Amino acid sequence: MDRDYSKITSADAPWLAEPSARAVCDAIATGGYQIFYVGGCVRNALLGLSASDVDMSTDATPQQVIALAEAAGLKPVPTGIDHGTITVVSGGVPYEVTTFRRDVETDGRRAVVAFSSDISDDARRRDFTMNALYADADGGVIDPLGGIDDLRARRVRFIEDADQRIREDYLRTLRYFRFHAWYGDTSEGLDADALAAIGSNLGGLETLSAERVGSEVKKLLAADDPSTAVAAMSQTGVLGTILPATDTRFVLLMIHGSDVLGLRPDWLGRLVALGGDAVPDRLRLSKADQRRYALIHAGAFDGVDLRATAFENGADIATQAHLIRSALAETLPDAAYIATLEQGAEEVFPVSAADLMPVYSGAELGARLAQLKAAWIASGFGLGKAELLGLPAP
Questions:
Q1: Which of 20, 37, 220, 261 could cross-link with 135 by S-S, CB 3.0 to 4.6 Å?
Q2: Which of 126, 198, 132 is nearest to 162 (CA)?
Q3: DSSP per residue over 11-25, as a string?
Q4: Given the DSSP bridges, would you call strands 93-99 and 85-90 parallel, antiparallel or unpaired?
């Protein structure tokens, strides 16, 4: 049965029936103003997917939103009032309510906006047609720019002129590939006009902050199968601009191998497989992600025993390293070996320092423990305590 793209229901959009969301809509509507759900929550509801954020759009000005929210007993917070956004807290849940607006001036990173009462103005300043969809409080869908046809076809298309949209905010280049990875139909290929505009504006990517680039790369690589998007990023020069010296051959093989085994996507493992110069710095990875990146990299390229990696750092680290090693060898990963890594992560080393004292102490104690642990791991975690203690010292 074909999906009805003219209306969403609480079955696909549980937030539509949330009393907290309804209270915000009612508060704005009471003043005689329009209020709509907008963007990703509407898009995902039409696709039958969950939404992480529920945003709203209105023809009321920010000051009017504040006054109406307060009158309804809700809490308005001017989180982005200069750009028309008021966060209205209802029932403990924050909702971003943004006034219709149009761009007056852009520099590729930020925009000066003017408020509008026309929903078409608001739609035209967005990035992709599938994101310029609105729904009223009862779920009726409003499609000012024909985005439903693109959504139905899983076609990621810039609104009107692709070159202009990109020049307004160069991050849209990376968003384009990310959205294609998550929502695009790979069988249709990527939009030729979009790719041409992206190729003409590579220099703009260098103006973006490392944090913004890193956030987009992380989201893109977390998609189930970003292969087509990653390959297109390489072909257009985008990947080489944001991450010099990367090579897509092995990450594409890694994605395939992971998919064959039904493994969950791991964006950091895929990032390691891409290679490149100073990647953690270029993407401003968090300290935790830097550490994990380094561990996966060492497991993949330093020739260590991955069973030891699993025991010391967890099966996920060792598994990602195995996937990369398999890609480098152009072979499929070994499900049985991955099961061994998962087993190793759960094992408990049967020998403690107390078992070796007082015969060993200080540096000799540490060396003996290391020797026995290496032997235990090499045995596939099969040697017991007595067998290990019976091994001759080096």
A1: 37
A2: 198
A3: TT-GGGG-HHHHHHH
A4: antiparallel
Whether the pLDDT of residue 233 is over 50: the answer is yes
DSSP 301: H
Domain 1-152 coded CATH 3.40.50.150: no
> In this predicted structure, what is the pLDDT of residue 164?
93
d(CA 181, CA 230): 8
The residue with tokens 């010292």 is 393
341/365 Cα distance (integer angstroms): 27
Q: Give the tens place of pLDDT for each residue, 271-314.
A: 999 999 999 999 999 999 999 999 999 999 999 999 999 999 99
Q: Which residues share a beta bridge with 115? A: 101
Has residue 239 got a pLDDT over 70? yes
Residue 56 bridge partners (DSSP)? 37, 97
Pick from 232, 239, 244, 269: which is nearest to 254 by CA?
Answer: 269
* CA-based nearest residue to 158, from 123, 111, 106, 134: 123
One-letter-per-residue 3-state SS of 305-351: CHHHHHHHHCHHHHHHHHHHHHHHCCCCCCHHHHHHHHHHHHCCCCC
Q: Are the C-beta atoms of 132 and 126 separated by less than 8 Å?
A: yes
**pLDDT averaged over every residue in the chain:** 93
Chain-centroid distance of CA 218 in Å reads: 5
Q: What percent of the chain has pLDDT over 70?
A: 97
Contacts of 225 (CB under 8 A, 6+ apart): 181, 186, 255, 259
State the Cα–Cα distance between residues 314 and 187, nearest whole angstrom. 37
Q: What is the pTM of this model?
A: 0.89
pLDDT of residue 103: 74
- 286 close to 267: Cβ distance less than 8 angstroms: no
